[in-house]
Write a structure and sequence with these properties.
There is one protein chain. The chain is of the alpha+beta class. Among the domains are: 113 residues, Alpha-Beta Plaits (2-Layer Sandwich); 211 residues, 3-Layer(bba) Sandwich (FAD/NAD(P)-binding domain), CATH 3.50.50. The protein has a seven-stranded mixed β-sheet. The chain has a three-stranded parallel β-sheet with strand order 1-2-8, covered by helices on one side. It has a three-stranded antiparallel β-sheet with strand order 3-7-4, with no helix packed on it. Strand 12 and strand 13 form a beta hairpin. The longest helix has 19 residues.
Length: 550
């Protein structure tokens, strides 16, 4: 029946359900506690604690800030309590990157990082860059100074690196609290930030990178491979990486990046990744190998033009949250760490001053933004600011590469203009009727795989009876708008199979089902939802993926 109906009739039929579907969103951020019968009779006691500095998030930036604060406190013989909360069950468990690390910020933080045993075991020995067509590759020379040059960098498993940073932080006296998800910002009466609250637990819900082990004969430790082109069309931004790691075993980390400003609602980033692995140049490496881990995350690729205001009374933004990634390099760990170091150096004199101890107002630290703007981070991001938006042109990929070759390689980002992005990623999708469905080949189970078996390798787990942390502002929007206009893009842009449209159990029509237990915390849905109706909030602490050194 589905195949015989014209598209317009099929969509109309889907949206005309006369049956009231079960409530999708039961989270307390959408259903206030005072109006939710599940909270009746619940007596909840909150525990409050105080610290000089509270850091939310145990990634490279947060840990670098914590470490630098304690280094300064020890140097100046000051008592300083630094607490760091992290939603993952252990440091590094939610960290995902096929990282090629620039060690500049690490060297600033720990000049003796080699003696300390930092897990940087694979110096880059070879760089390869290709433009892919369906069956061939066009090698592109990496000229000196271009962003893809990696001489002096290291290939790392970033989760292991973050775990090591956590160990260094604890040795210095930082209090780490893994398994605690900061869910709410607390404010003073004057509007300045006072602290954070972790989320409520105990109330029931009712009321694309991979790691492969390959044939040792194909293993080339220190080799980096990047590509652009196929399987994406020239107007869809994206590319790939494949890094040969030296971890005592023949491991490669590979991933595929798709810009979330793509326009075709039928595009699936996960399935594009599976297609890419069948390119002859990639398949030759993977054949005979074994995938051992999978994960996904969204990258903040707005770059220089998208950096928000960095400070506010009581707090500041560091690391990934304000978007310090160098987009053409696909690198952000070094800039994130440097932002944490600069934040610590700006905070320390303020928080240790006599007048800092206020019960009614949060400290304001504008010096952080000032020091960042005079640092190499700002200079680096400014120099590459036009590369990403240059791909929005009639020639797409080819126009962007021409622009990069001329204006970056020759002028080093000193153009007297700054290009603009074309708008929110969520607003770029075209209606389904204007686009051609993409026919993806079935996975072969050897090189390409189905979604659910891949998610199983992420170790993802959530307490099954908690309210789903994928919340909707309006439960009616998915069927009435997303399915009707865009043919349900959330079931394709999610790399973990969280969203699916299923028939209403009784009656006619479809409903959105959210499989929150599959969520790998990539936050793509919050960014790409064309209706901006999905609001990703933190689940109970400790839930989510359990990446083992990804």
């Amino acid at each position: 029946v589905k195949q015989k109906l014209p598209r317009g009739d099929l969509i109309t039929r889907r949206t005309c359900s006369s049956v009231t579907a079960p409530r999708i969103t039961t989270h307390y951020t959408i259903r206030p506690r005072d109006k939710d019968p599940r909270w009746e009779g619940v007596e909840m006691e909150r525990f409050a604690d105080q610290a000089d500095v509270v850091i939310v998030g145990g990634g490279p930036a947060g840990l670098s800030a914590a470490i630098r604060l304690k280094q300064l406190a020890n140097e100046h013989q000051k008592e300083l309590r630094v607490c760091l909360v992290e939603k993952a069950p252990q440091m590094g468990a939610h960290t995902l990157s096929g990282a090629c690390l620039e060690p500049s910020a690490l060297t600033e933080l720990f000049p003796d990082w080699k003696e300390r045993g930092a897990p940087l075991n694979t110096p880059v020995t070879e760089d390869v860059f290709n433009i892919f067509t369906k069956n061939h590759r066009i090698p592109v020379p990496i000229l000196p100074g271009l962003p893809m040059q990696n001489h002096g960098n290291y290939l790392v498993r970033l989760g292991n690196f973050v775990r090591w940073l956590g160990e260094q932080a604890e040795e210095l006296g930082v209090e780490l609290y893994p398994g605690y998800a900061a869910a709410e910002v607390l404010f003073h009466e004057d509007g300045s930030v006072k602290g954070v609250a972790t989320n409520d637990v105990g109330i029931a819900k009712d009321g694309s990178p991979k790691l492969w082990m390959i044939d040792e004969k194909k293993w080339k430790p220190g080799r980096t491979e990047h590509s652009v082109g196929w399987p994406l069309d020239r107007h869809t931004y994206g590319g790939s990486f494949l890094y040969h790691l030296n971890e005592g075993e023949p491991l490669v980390a590979l991933g595929f990046v798709v810009g979330l400003d793509y326009t075709n609602p039928y595009l699936s980033p996960f399935r594009e990744f599976q297609r890419w692995k069948h390119h002859p140049f990639v398949a030759a490496t993977l054949e005979g190998g074994q995938r051992i881990a999978y994960g996904a995350r969204a990258l903040n690729e707005g770059g220089f033009q998208s950096i928000p205001k960095l400070t506010f009374p009581g707090g500041l933004l560091i690391g990934c949250s304000p978007g310090f990634m160098n987009v053409p390099k696909i690198k952000g760990t070094h800039t994130a760490m440097k932002s944490g170091i600069l934040a610590a150096e700006a905070i320390f004199p303020k928080v240790t001053a006599e007048e800092a101890d206020s019960e009614t107002a949060g400290l304001h630290v504008p010096e952080y933004a000032e020091s960042l703007k005079s640092s190499w981070v700002w200079k680096e991001l400014h120099s590459v600011r036009n590369i990403r938006p240059s791909f929005h042109n009639p020639l797409g990929l080819y126009g962007g590469m021409i622009y990069t070759g001329i204006f970056y390689w020759i002028l080093r980002g000193k153009e007297p203009w700054t290009l603009k992005h074309r708008g929110l990623d969520a607003h770029q999708l075209k209606p389904a009727k204007e686009c051609t469905p993409i026919e993806y080949p079935k996975p072969d189970g050897k090189i390409s795989f189905d979604l659910l078996s891949s998610v199983a390798l992420s170790g993802t787990n959530h307490e099954g009876d908690q309210p789903p942390h994928l919340t909707l502002k309006d439960d009616s929007v998915p069927v009435a708008r997303n399915l009707a206009v865009y043919d349900g893009p959330e079931q394709r842009f999610c790399p973990a199979g969280v969203y699916e449209y299923v028939p209403v159990e009784t009656g006619d029509g479809m409903r959105l089902q959210i499989n929150a237990q599959n969520c790998v915390h990539c936050k793509t849905c919050d960014i790409k939802d064309p209706s901006q109706n999905i609001n990703w909030v933190v689940p109970e602490g400790g839930g989510g993926p359990a990446y083992n050194g990804m």
